[in-house]
């Protein structure tokens, strides 16, 4: 069974409460439970969230050599953190970058990703469904 982790960055703990017109009305925890149950036969699936850049880097280092896949939504750090981009480049585990919103339909600074050049793939604009699409890429 493949071991995967979803890592979410800043403010994603507010999904379901924060800007529901952009991010929807479901919490990530509710969505994760459904996802975990749906793919219980295929994956050992874990979830981690932090609002702190260094904690996200530490988690990438921790799982980046012994997991089969990482689904990463670094949120705003995607566009600002060279450190997270470098962490993704330094690890061996493939990473799929995910964003709930269409980052290219938002502010111009969000069009740049420090993660994408070292990611297996990038999904954005599909809401929470993007996480499931990323998960399916590891089947």
What does this molecule look like?
The protein contains five helices and five strands. The chain has 139 residues and is an alpha/beta fold. It has one domain: Rossmann fold (3-Layer(aba) Sandwich). It has a five-stranded parallel β-sheet with strand order 2-1-3-4-5, with helices on both faces. Helix 3 runs parallel beside helix 4. The mean pLDDT is 92.
Short description:
With 139 residues, this protein is of the alpha/beta class.
CATH class: Alpha Beta
Unreliable stretches (pLDDT < 50, length at least 5) are: none
Task: Please state the overall shape, judged from the principal axes of the Cα atoms.
Answer: globular
The H-and-E topology, N to C, reads as EHHEHEHEEH
| CATH architecture annotation name | 3-Layer(aba) Sandwich
CATH names the topology as Rossmann fold
Main sheet?
Answer: 5 strands, parallel
What's the CATH superfamily, by name?
Dehydroquinase, class II
Strand order of the largest sheet: 2-1-3-4-5
CA gyration radius, whole angstroms: 14 Å
Structural class: alpha/beta
Q: Give the terminus-to-terminus CA distance.
A: 10 Å
């Amino acid at each position: 069974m493949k071991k995967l982790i979803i890592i979410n960055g800043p403010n994603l703990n507010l999904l379901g409460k924060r800007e529901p017109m952009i991010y929807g009305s479901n919490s990530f925890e509710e969505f994760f439970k459904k996802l975990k149950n749906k793919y219980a036969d295929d994956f050992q699936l874990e979830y981690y969230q932090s609002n702190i850049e260094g904690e996200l880097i530490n988690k990438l280092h921790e799982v980046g050599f012994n997991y089969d896949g990482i689904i990463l939504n670094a949120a705003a750090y995607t566009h600002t953190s060279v450190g997270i981009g470098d962490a993704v480049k330094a690890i061996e585990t493939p990473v799929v970058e995910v964003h709930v919103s269409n980052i290219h339909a938002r502010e111009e600074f969000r069009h740049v990703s420090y993660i994408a050049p070292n990611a297996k793939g990038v999904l954005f604009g599909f809401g929470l469904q993007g996480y499931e699409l990323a998960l399916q890429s590891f089947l």
